[in-house]
Amino acid sequence: MGDPAAAWTAMGRAEVQRSGGWVPRPLSGGRELPLAWVRDGPGERTPVLAVPGGPGLASVLPYRGLRRAAARRGLDVIMVEHRGVGLSRHDSTGADLTVDDVTSTSAADDLAAVLDAAGVPRAIVYGTSYGSYLAQVFAVRHPDRIAAMVLDSPGLDAGDVADVRAHLRALFWDGHHPATARCAALVRELAAAGEDPLELSGVVQHVYEFAGSAPLERLLTARLRGRGRRSWARIAGLGRAEVESPTGQPLVFEPDLVRPIGQGELGFDAPPDGHPLDPQQLFALAPAAESRTPPYDIPAELGRFSWPVAVVSGDRDLRTPPPVAERVAELLPDAVLVPLAAHGHSALDTHRLAALNVAHIVEAGAHRALPGLAGRLAALPRRGAPALLGPVLRAGIALDTRLPGAPPTP
User: Per its UniProt entry, which superkingdom is the organism in (predicted)?
Assistant: First the structure.
C-alpha cells in the first residue's frame, strides 16, 4: 500500500498547480516560504478572498467543494494556505517553519502578496471564525485592497471570552431564554450531582449548536436517569481530540505552529474561572504555546473600515455568539447584521449555500438587503459533511435514550 500522507500531499500540489501557484515569501535568516494559493471561478468580477478558521485550518484541500460550488454560481474565489499549515508549512528547503515565522501580521501580508500574484487590486474578503480576525488584521494593514467584507461568526480579541461565558451561562445555567430554560434546570441538577464539568460543558455546546435544544434536553434528562451513556461519551469527546492533538491532521488541520495566535491574540489561554460552563476548560487542555500580544486594538480600528460589511451570526453559535457579532456590527460604519436561525458557528463550514449567497449579494453591492433575506438564507438546504452532524446527533440521541421496549422515535 502507498503512503496516504504522500498521496494526500500530491493531491494538494496538483490542486495548486491546476488553479493557483506558489508565492515566494521572505523569512528571517535569508529563508523563503513557498506560499500555496488556489483560485476557482470565471475571473470576470471582483474575487472573493475566503479565509477559513482554526487557527490551523488548511484551505487547498478541505475547501475544494466549496470553491467548485462557488464557481458554478459565478463567484471567483481565492484561498491562501495559511503559513505554517498544510502546503505552506515548509520553507524552500523542506524544513518546517518555526513558531516565530507564523504571526497574524505576516499571514495578513501573505494575503496581499497572493492578490498581487493573481493580479487582483481589490477583493471581497470573507473571513470566518479565526479567519474573521485575520481578515480584520488584513484590513488594518491593507485597507486599499478591500472592496467589501463578510465577517462570519466573527471574533475581535481576548475580550470576547467574557461575552462567550456570559452568553453560555445565561442560556444554560440561568435559563434566561424560554427555549433553554428546561435545559438549564437539568444542567444545574447534573452539576449538583457531580457530573464532570468539562464533559457537561462540551455536551451542551455541541448538541445545542448542531442539533438544538430539544435533543439536548432529551440527552440531559436521560443522563440524570442513568441512560444515554453511549451518546454522552461520544459527544463529550468531540472537542478534546482537536484541542489536545499536538499536530492535528496533516493538510486539513495543523494547529501547532499557529497556536500562539489563538492563545494570545484571541484569548484561548485565558484561565478557567472556576464557575460552571466555562469554555476555557477545553482550551486549558491544549499544549502550552508562546503567548502573543495582539498587534492592533481591533475594536478601535473598526471605525475606520469604510467599506460595506455583512456580519453573519448563527443564533445557536456558542463559540463566537450573537452578542459578539452584534458588537462587531455596531462598531463598523457600514455594516449589517445577518442572523441565521437554527444555525451554529461558521456558515462557510456548516451552511455553504447560505455563505455563498451572502458573498454573492455582497459582491453585487446589495449588502443592505441581507437582513431582510436572513430567513430565506437560513432555510436553504444544508450540504456537505459538516451539515450531516446535526441529523446524526439527533438520530443517535433519540436511539440511545429510548426507553426499553419503546417504539422507535419518529
Answer: Bacteria
Instruction: Report the half-sphere exposure of 58 (CA within 13 A, side-chain side).
Output: 24
Q: How many domains does the chain have?
A: 2
249-265 pLDDT, tens digit each: 899 999 999 999 988 88
Q: Looking at 73-192, list the stretches that DSSP marks H as alpha helix, in order from N- to C-terminal side.
A: 104-118, 130-141, 160-172, 181-192
Task: State mean pLDDT over 362-379.
Answer: 98
Residue 268 confidence (pLDDT) above 50: yes
Question: How does 12-47 read in b/e, with b if 16+ C-beta sit within 10 Å?
Answer: beebbeebbebbebebeeeeebbbbbbbbbeeeebb
**Is residue 6 domain-resident?**
no
Q: Are residues 69 and 215 in the same domain?
A: no
Q: What is the pLDDT of residue 241?
A: 65
Residue 304 and residue 271 share a domain: no
User: Which residue segment(s) compose the domain that 199 sits in?
Assistant: 162-292+389-400
At 280, list the grid cell. Answer: 476555557
Record the pTM: 0.95
Per the DSSP assignment, residues forming a β-bridge with 123 are 146
Residue 240 CB contacts under 8 Å (≥ 6 apart), including other chains: 202, 282, 285
Query: What is the model's pLDDT at position 203?
Result: 95
Average pLDDT, the chain: 92
CB 343 within 8 Å of CB 358: no
User: Do 394 and 255 fall within a single domain?
Assistant: yes
